[in-house]
Amino acid sequence: MTEVYATADLIDAHGDALASCETQFRQFGARRAFHGPIATIRCHEDNALVREQLNQPGEGWVLVVDGGGSLRTALMGDMIARAATENGWAGVIIHGAVRDVAELASIDIGIKALGSNPRKSAKTGAGVLDTTVAFGNAVFSPEAWLYSDDDGILISDEQLPLP
Description:
17% of the residues lie in helices and 34% in strands. With 163 residues, the chain is of the alpha/beta class. The strands form two sheets. Strands 1, 2, 3, 4, 5, 6, 7, 8, 11 and 12 form a ten-stranded mixed sheet that branches. Strand 9 (133-135) and strand 10 form a beta hairpin.
C-alpha cells in the first residue's frame, strides 16, 4: 500500500495499543514503508512454504516468516520477491536471511530481514503456516496488522486509521 505514514506518529497516536518489534532488521526491498494484514510461516532453513505463499494472491498482505534467526541459508531471493510483487504482497519480514541483495533493492516490495547469505535453503516444505510467531519481544498473529518503515515494525490487533 502506498499511503504515507510514520511508525513514530502511529505509536504517538496509539501508544500501548501497539506492539513494537525490538529486533533490528535491515531494509532490502525498494519499498521502505509498507503495511497490511499479517500472514505467517514458521520454518527453519527451508523456503518451500515461503515460495508457495508468495506465489498466491497477496492482496496487500505482509508475510512474516520466523526462520528462527538463522543466517545460515537464505529464505528468499530475487525470484521469490518478484513473484510476491507480481502477486500483490505489500511486504515480507524474515527473521532470518535473504540473498540476491542487489536485485532485491530494485524490487517494489517491502523486505526486511536480519541479514544475507548466498546459500540456498532446503526445499522440503518443512514448516507451519498461519501460526502465531514471536521474536523481538513482539507477537505476530495471523490477521493482525503490521506497519513498517525505517524506524521499525509495529503490530496492531486491528487496522489503524493513518494520520
